[in-house]
Structures are given as structure tokens and as C-alpha cells.
């Protein structure tokens, strides 16, 4: 039995009926032969790893009354067939049909009485390829640990040996409520009183805000609670690099539903590197500039472009290499501005570069060992109550100090081909998280010579997510033209899409 760290547990406390804490990855593979059975290959591979990979077999045990962080325990009722599932797309099996399946799967919460992962084998793609959708709760692994999991699941050669039997493992009995409460009391005795007082004040303010008549006053009072978090770093605690001013409103900074839409596009990494050389930035700067330009185009198309820049939250790994548990979350964030208010593509690149440098300087003020302190001392019952109050009463999008508009993440991936049971990995599309008041997330993963973009949105707030995705790819062309950079690879055209299904009316010709 092992207790979750405060940072890991935070991803459980963030969950509400509309906000889910799982992260998902969509991998598309070639089919090595006509007789290849993707489901059988995936099932055999995971079966061989259950004894080796602890995150695959451990389930949550929550402390009564939410007095302490939950524990991981090996599941005594582990059932591999529950976790590995098979889907076959209806004909013709186009990319938007695949994305629709991803959207539905991502929009379902995970069963906390089971190990927090699911794998979907998706067949029937129109080009003969097949897909594997992995769904892990963020409490289990972060982005860096996800890449580690990918490395374990895949091979670097197509003719690697087939998986062998799993190492033996033995499930432990589930702890009793009395044992969990006893541990919680001992842990609470060592918690800083200041942290508990702070959280009590935060929940009290949210509760008061929910119960008063004036919506404006409610937003103001909830905003004061959030601002208290940012002020904490300027008093006698560690300097937490949170923004203290509001981000401008956008169409997706509103209460979210539990429904999602997903879209994906691929760009040439080599072309982005040409842009990096031509503009003097980094690959990450160029990715941020692509997002700034794509979002600007989308907001202009909807007559919703704010006068000032947007602000992004960019996750940053704070792994030192000395972690005892490679599967625990080690992540912080920076909050750079996105120059969506700037019409010049090259100026957007320059401003992105400066914004990223400024944000990283703030992050450097905080030792990595201190960044998880606030999460570690959080009382679960208070953290969870705060999130549910904010969600229930729609406070998130009304808070005066909503600190950022969306999450943008750029995850470096492998530069060599990977194989799964002899099937070569073609694409690795990330599918991340949207949260209350933040109905858009853009995540990018590099693989070989390409960048795979994943756009996950609230279904109601961004109904035209494919248009948004296409606008990001169009922005690369604008940057290439403005910078004079040379095209190393031709732009990859969008895959054919089925589009909306036409409903046949009486009297229509077939």
C-alpha cells in the first residue's frame, strides 16, 4: 500500500461531473500483415506487463471523510479483460469517425473501484491501419511517465521477440476504514496549520459566494479566494509563479459540459526547425506562435478576438532524475502570454519567445522540491469541496482573476521508429484534459520528423474543432512565407473526412 503524493491526488480532487482527470493518447499503427490481429497483440502485451508495471494493477482506496490523500493498493479483483476493449469503426472508417469515438471515450469518467486505466483497440480505418487509444488517469502518470510507458510497450525493431509471461505478483488485502483513519490522524498531526487554515478560508469564501444573491458579488468573493493563492507566494511561503491579473474572455472560457470533441492534424517537424533557424527562436517558441496565430484566426472568424493577448498555461516537467517512484507526477507550469492581438506573424514569434523566457525566469525562482508542497499539505475534503462548489454554481468563468485561457503542451517524443508487435507506429496524437472554465486544450507530441497536434474541446463551446485544427496548420504556411524559410517537406494535407451525416428526407433522391 502506497499513499498518493499531494500532486498526484490533486488530479483526483479536480474531478467534477463535467471535469475528468484522465489523459489519453491515440496511437495509429500500420498493419504488418493481413492476418495480424490487433486486439490479440495488445492483450498479450499488457498481460505480459501486469507484474512488472505497478500502475497497471493498483487501484484507489480513499480515506473515509476525505481526511487524507488516498492510497494505491494492488487490486485483488484485477481483470485484464475489463481494461482492454475493442471497437470497429463503421464504414468507411475516416479520420473524423475515429475522432468521434475518441470524443465519446474521453467524455466518460473512470471507475475508481478499478485500476485507473483503459485501452481501446480500434480497427476499421479506411487506410487499413489500426489505432490504440490509451486512457490513464493523471493521478497515475504524467506526460513524462506516459512516454516511459510508451517505451516499455513498444519495441525499436519490427522483429522483436513476442511477449513472455508476466512476473508473478500477489495482491494485498484492502485496508479497513479504521486503518485508514488511524493513518490519516497521524498524518494530519504533522501538517502545517497554516495550510489547513488557508484552505478552510478558501472553501468558506466559495460557500459564501454560492449562497448570496448578487452574481457579481459572488464572482468577486470567489476571485478573492483565488487571488489568495497567488498572494501566498509573496508572503512567507515559496514564490509560486502564478499570474495575478485576469485573462481576457473567449468563447471557450465558460462553464463546460461533460461532452467532448477531438480533432487532430500533423505538421512537419523539419519545417518547424527551418522556422526556428529563420527566426532565432526555439521549436517550443514556434509551436506557441503557431497556436497564437491559429487561435487568432479562429477568434476573428467568430468575431471574438480580444483587444489584448491571451494567456496560456504551459506544463513543465520538474523531474530531477532522482525520483524514487518514476510513475508519480512531477509537473509545474508557466503562464506565458499568447500574442493573439498581434497581426504580424514574425512579431508573434518574437513576442512568444520573450513571453516564454519571462515565464521560465519566474519558474526558476522556485526550487523544484518546493513546488509540490502546497499540494502535499492539502486536505482532500477541502480541495474537493472547493472544486465542486465552483463547478456547481458556475463560478469558474466568473472569477475576476481567471488566470489563463487554455493549456498548451509540447511533449518531446521519440526520434526513432517504434513498433508494437511488429506494427510500426505512424502517429502519436495526444488527447489531454479540459477543465471548468477552460474548454480548450492543445497538446503537441513530436515523433520522428513530424509534430502531431491534438485538440480537445468542450463539445458545446467549440463545435467546429476541425476548423480550429486546420487554422493551426494554415498558420505554419503564413510563418514560412513571412520568414522566407525553405520548405523541407511538403505540407501534409488533411486526411479525408466523412463530415456530418446527411439525413434523407421523404421524397429525396438517393
TrEMBL record:
- In terms of domain of life, where is this protein from? Bacteria
Pathway per its UniProt entry is:
Lipid metabolism; Glycerolipid metabolism; triacylglycerol biosynthesis
Q: Where is the O-acyltransferase WSD1-like N-terminal domain?
A: 4-287
Domain (O-acyltransferase WSD1 C-terminal) ranges: 327-475
Please list the coiled coil stretches: none
Ordered alphabetically, the record's keywords are: Acyltransferase, Glycerol metabolism, Lipid biosynthesis, Lipid metabolism, Transferase
Q: Is Amino-acid biosynthesis among the key words of this record?
A: no
**Which top class of enzyme applies to this chain?**
transferase
GO annotation, biological process: biological process involved in interaction with host; glycerol metabolic process; response to hypoxia; response to nitric oxide; triglyceride biosynthetic process
User: Which reaction equations make up its catalytic activity?
Assistant: an acyl-CoA + a 1,2-diacyl-sn-glycerol = a triacyl-sn-glycerol + CoA
GO CC: one term? plasma membrane
EC numbers for this chain: 2.3.1.20
- List the InterPro entries: Acyl_transf_WS/DGAT, CAT-like_dom_sf, O-acyltransferase_WSD1-like, O-acyltransferase_WSD1_C, O-acyltransferase_WSD1_N
Q: Which GO terms describe its molecular function?
A: diacylglycerol O-acyltransferase activity
Name the Pfam families on file.
WS_DGAT_C, WS_DGAT_cat
Similarity field: Belongs to the long-chain O-acyltransferase family.
What name does this protein carry? Diacylglycerol O-acyltransferase
Amino acid at each position: 500500500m502506497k499513499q498518493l503524493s499531494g500532486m498526484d491526488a490533486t488530479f483526483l480532487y479536480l474531478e467534477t461531473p463535467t471535469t475528468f482527470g484522465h489523459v489519453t493518447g491515440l496511437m495509429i499503427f500500420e498493419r504488418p500483415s493481413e492476418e495480424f490481429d490487433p486486439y490479440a497483440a495488445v492483450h498479450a502485451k499488457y498481460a505480459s506487463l501486469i507484474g512488472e508495471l505497478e500502475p497497471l494493477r493498483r487501484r484507489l482506496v480513499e480515506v473515509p471523510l476525505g481526511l487524507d490523500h488516498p492510497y494505491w493498493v494492488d487490486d485483488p479483483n484485477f481483470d485484464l479483460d475489463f481494461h482492454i476493449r475493442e471497437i470497429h469503426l463503421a464504414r468507411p472508417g475516416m479520420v473524423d469517425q475515429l475522432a468521434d469515438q475518441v470524443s465519446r471515450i474521453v467524455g466518460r469518467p473512470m471507475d475508481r473501484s478499478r485500476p485507473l486505466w483503459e485501452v481501446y483497440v480500434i480497427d476499421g480505418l479506411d487506410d487499413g491501419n489500426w489505432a490504440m487509444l490509451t486512457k490513464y488517469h493523471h493521478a497515475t502518470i504524467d506526460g513524462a511517465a506516459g512516454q516511459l510507458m510508451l517505451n516499455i510497450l513498444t519495441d525499436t525493431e519490427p522483429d522483436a521477440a513476442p511477449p513472455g509471461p508476466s512476473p508473478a505478483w500477489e495482491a494485498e488485502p484492502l485496508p479497513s476504514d479504521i486503518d485508514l483513519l488511524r493513518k490519516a490522524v497521524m498524518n494530519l498531526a504533522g501538517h502545517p496549520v497554516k495550510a489547513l487554515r488557508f484552505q478552510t478560508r478558501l472553501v468558506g469564501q466559495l460557500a459564501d459566494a454560492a449562497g448570496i444573491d448578487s452574481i457579481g458579488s459572488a464572482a468577486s468573493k470567489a476571485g478573492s479566494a483565488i487571488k489568495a493563492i497567488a498572494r501566498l507566494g509573496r508572503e512567507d511561503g515559496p514564490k509560486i509563479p502564478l499570474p495575478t491579473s485576469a485573462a481576457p474572455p473567449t468563447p471557450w472560457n465558460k462553464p463546460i459540459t461533460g461532452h467532448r470533441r477531438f480533432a487532430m492534424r500533423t505538421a512537419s517537424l523539419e519545417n518547424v526547425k527551418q522556422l526556428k533557424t529563420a527566426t532565432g527562436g526555439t521549436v517550443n517558441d514556434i509551436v506557441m506562435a503557431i497556436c497564437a496565430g491559429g487561435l487568432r484566426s479562429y477568434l476573428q472568424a467568430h468575431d471574438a478576438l480580444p483587444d489584448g493577448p491571451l494567456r496560456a498555461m504551459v506544463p513543465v516537467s520538474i523531474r530531477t532524475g532522482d525520483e524514487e517512484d518514476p510513475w508519480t507526477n512531477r509537473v509545474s507550469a508557466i503562464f506565458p502570454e499568447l500574442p493573439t492581438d498581434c497581426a504580424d506573424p514574425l512579431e508573434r514569434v518574437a513576442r512568444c519567445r520573450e513571453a516564454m523566457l519571462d515565464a521560465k525566469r519566474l519558474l526558476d525562482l522556485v526550487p523544484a522540491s518546493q513546488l509540490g508542497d502546497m499540494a502535499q499539505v492539502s486536505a482532500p475534503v477541502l480541495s474537493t469541496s472547493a472544486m465542486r462548489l465552483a463547478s456547481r454554481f458556475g463560478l469558474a468563468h466568473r472569477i475576476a482573476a481567471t488566470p489563463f485561457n487554455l493549456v498548451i503542451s509540447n511533449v518531446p517524443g521519440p526520434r526513432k521508429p517504434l513498433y508494437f508487435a511488429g506494427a510500426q507506429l505512424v502517429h502519436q496524437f495526444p488527447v489531454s484534459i479540459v477543465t471548468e472554465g477552460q474548454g480548450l486544450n492543445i497538446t503537441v507530441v513530436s515523433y520522428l520528423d513530424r509534430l502531431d497536434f491534438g485538440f480537445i474541446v468542450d463539445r458545446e463551446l467549440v463545435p467546429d474543432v476541425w476548423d480550429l485544427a486546420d487554422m493551426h496548420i494554415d498558420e505554419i504556411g503564413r510563418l514560412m512565407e513571412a520568414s522566407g524559410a525553405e520548405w523541407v517537406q511538403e505540407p501534409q494535407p488533411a486526411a479525408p473526412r466523412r463530415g456530418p451525416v446527411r439525413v434523407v428526407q421523404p421524397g429525396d433522391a438517393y
